[in-house]
Amino acid sequence: MSRPPGRKQDSQKISRELFVLTYGALVAQLCKDYEKDEDVNTCLDRMGYAIGIRLIDDFLARSSVKRCRSYSETADMIAQVAFKMYLGVTPSVSCSSAAGNEFSLILDKNPLVDFVEELPAERASLCYCNLLCGVIRGALEMVHLAAEVTFLQDRLKGDAVTEIGITFLRKAEDRKHRRNK
Amino acid sequence: MADETLFLLLHSEMVAGLYRAAEQGEGENGRCTTKLESMGFRVGQGLIERFTKDTARFKDELDIMKFICKDFWTTVFKKQIDNLRTNHQGIYVLQDNKFRLLTQMSAGKQYLEHAPKFLAFTCGLIRGGLSNLGIKSIVTAEVSSMPACKFQVMIQKM
């Protein structure tokens, strides 16, 4: 009984599916545990944060990137290196404020929702991918960048694209003491 | 691989999160294990479907168990099961000497009591996988020394 060839790429794909399915099961479980969508969102964000503060170590070790010199460089790094590495997609980045500290990551494709068709009607304000926000926030905090990360648009809620907004909280001038990123 | 890190972190955070919530609330640890197990079950069902899509039909129960030990385990945990034993009457013991979800913890005795938390999801994973291949089972796990663990699969005859 020979198994067909082509297992290698298959196994990589399944490995990602394992993550996506596990995440789905987690969200489903949290929805059972908490009645309010806000509580689920908070819980996902907190979990993401805890993942982010550890993931950054793995990211720096794997990517061996150089220090970023500006917020826009950091945003590009998140989009082009980090997202590519962990989720296999590259969101496009746009800067949405004159102060240069607000950025949007626009995802055409979101692998986390590969198996999600739509949100149930009674879960209208659930932020399905809120984990991502926590991860980004946690990771940035570990390189001494305080940031607020939220979903601005979500395909699951009927928007045209999925958009994650990152707002760096400190002004551009007092970044002198920033550590390596 | 990068995906793997994500899964490992998500898994440990899932365990931590559920137990944290239980401590604040009713504090029933048994329920957490059940929850983790049922999450694993769902994931196992989904995975095995994608997995066996293009594979040949299995000969018998043992063939299925071998598949779980080799292909399934390799994809999920990056290594094979080290030892598979059976009494040929529906009980299988899968031994992993360096179980991936335990290797991140200290190998001493210190955290031995917490180890079962990190096995519940995998028990469900196996049970879910087997269930979608038409085998009803009960899966339990035990750890005697840290990165090694044993999963016991009891097949329920229908």
Automatic annotation (TrEMBL), chain A:
Q: Which InterPro entries match?
A: Bet3, NO_sig/Golgi_transp_ligand-bd, TRAPP_component
List where in the cell it is found: Endoplasmic reticulum; Golgi apparatus, cis-Golgi network
One Pfam family of this chain:
TRAPP
Q: Where does this protein chiefly localize?
A: endoplasmic reticulum
Q: Which Gene3D superfamilies match?
A: Trafficking protein particle complex subunit 3
Statement: the UniProt record of this protein carries the keyword Endoplasmic reticulum: yes
- KW Secreted (keyword) present: no
The UniProt keywords, alphabetically, are:
Endoplasmic reticulum, ER-Golgi transport, Golgi apparatus, Lipoprotein, Palmitate, Transport
One biological-process term from Gene Ontology? Golgi vesicle transport
Q: Which domain of life is it from?
A: Eukaryota
Instruction: Kindly list the GO CC terms recorded for this protein.
Output: endoplasmic reticulum; Golgi apparatus; TRAPP complex
What function does this protein fulfil? May play a role in vesicular transport from endoplasmic reticulum to Golgi.
Complex and partners: Homodimer. Component of the multisubunit TRAPP (transport protein particle) complex, which includes at least TRAPPC2, TRAPPC2L, TRAPPC3, TRAPPC3L, TRAPPC4, TRAPPC5, TRAPPC8, TRAPPC9, TRAPPC10, TRAPPC11 and TRAPPC12.
Family (UniProt) = Belongs to the TRAPP small subunits family. BET3 subfamily.
Q: What is the name listed in the Swiss-Prot or TrEMBL entry for this protein?
A: Trafficking protein particle complex subunit
Naturally occurring in which organism (per UniProt): Aythya fuligula
- Organism taxonomic ancestry: Eukaryota, Metazoa, Chordata, Craniata, Vertebrata
Gene expressing this chain: TRAPPC3L
Automatic annotation (TrEMBL), chain B:
Which domain of life, per UniProt?
A: Eukaryota
**BP term (GO), one:** endoplasmic reticulum to Golgi vesicle-mediated transport
Q: Name one Pfam family in it.
A: TRAPP
* Keyword vocabulary terms for this entry: Endoplasmic reticulum, Golgi apparatus, Neurogenesis
Location of this chain's protein in the cell: Endoplasmic reticulum; Golgi apparatus, cis-Golgi network
A cellular component annotation (GO) from this entry? endoplasmic reticulum
The record ties this protein, via InterPro entries, to: NO_sig/Golgi_transp_ligand-bd (IPR024096), TRAPP_component (IPR007194), TRAPPC6/Trs33 (IPR037992)
Give the protein's function: Component of a transport protein particle (TRAPP) complex that may function in specific stages of inter-organelle traffic. Specifically involved in the early development of neural circuitry, likely by controlling the frequency and amplitude of intracellular calcium transients implicated in the regulation of neuron differentiation and survival.
Please give the PANTHER family that the UniProt record associates with this protein. TRAFFICKING PROTEIN PARTICLE COMPLEX SUBUNIT 6B (PTHR12817)
Family note: Belongs to the TRAPP small subunits family. BET3 subfamily.
User: What is this protein identified as?
Assistant: Trafficking protein particle complex subunit 6B
Give the source species: Aythya fuligula
Which taxonomic lineage is given here? Eukaryota, Metazoa, Chordata, Craniata, Vertebrata
Q: Which gene encodes it?
A: TRAPPC6B
